[in-house]
UniProtKB/TrEMBL annotation:
Top-rank taxon, per record: Eukaryota
Record-given protein name: Putative rte all
Length: 234
């Protein structure tokens, strides 16, 4: 690697910023492994994680650091949006959903690369905790509402299902109708989760079918309607 850098520099074809070089040593050993290399005149020490093309790569390749990174970025977006769409604002839920899609895009970025991170409860919990805040803003819900109920009322598919859908579409890219079939499969999984959920039973009595609720085109969910649908509020 160092010899290639020297050739490029010598040929004046490309000037490299050696001090900006980063390295991560990937290992499955329990003890943290570290290494040191020389690039030009600089000594580069390995890090626990580095960011490459917007994705955090860590030394265990479990993408825990990327989940944390994505959630922190999404939380900042949600916090900024909270100031312009408080619970009692006149902004409709459909417009709030459009604004909140920014945070969803942050969480879904490059999902096929790191979707294996969903295999751990820690990462699923971290993602859902962040995504729940976004759903609460969309439907103007109180913090006491359950995650299962707030996703249904807000009409937002749970983030873990969205990420799995994104991965399925990438895996079967090029196949006609893949996105339509993937979405239908996602809604089916969501319905199963909703039917089996222990929380949000009052909301389930009022909205038993998530597909019908998603397709409903009349009216908007607001602060007062959310209180009624969730059973939480004044």
């Amino acid at each position: 690697g160092d010899r290639c850098c020297r050739k490029l520099d010598a040929g004046k074809k490309l000037a490299l910023a050696h001090h900006k070089t980063e390295m991560v040593l990937i290992s499955n050993r329990k003890a943290v492994q570290q290494a040191r290399i020389s690039v030009g005149e600089c000594i580069i020490e390995s890090k626990r994680n580095v960011r490459h093309l917007g994705v955090m790569l860590d030394d265990r390749l479990n993408f825990n650091s990327h989940v944390d990174y994505a959630c922190e970025r999404a939380a900042k977006v949600i916090s900024a949006l909270s100031r312009i769409m408080p619970n009692n604002s006149a902004i409709s839920s459909s417009k709030k959903r459009l604004l909140a899609s920014v945070s969803t895009s942050v969480l879904r970025y490059a999902a096929p690369v790191w979707v294996t991170a969903l295999q751990t409860r820690r990462n699923r919990s971290r993602l859902n905790s962040t995504f729940r805040l976004m759903a609460m803003r969309v439907c103007s819900a109180y913090r006491t509402i359950s995650s299962e109920a707030v996703y249904v009322i807000a009409g937002t598919i749970p983030i873990d299902l969205l990420l799995e859908e994104e991965n399925e579409c990438y895996r079967d890219r090029g196949i006609s109708g893949v996105r339509r079939r993937a979405r239908a499969d996602t809604v089916r999984k969501w319905q199963q989760q909703w039917d089996n959920a222990e929380n949000g039973r009052w909301t389930h009595r009022l909205i038993p079918n998530v597909s019908t609720w998603l397709d409903w085109k009349h009216g908007e969910v607001n602060f007062h309607l959310t209180q009624f649908l969730s059973g939480h509020g004044c």
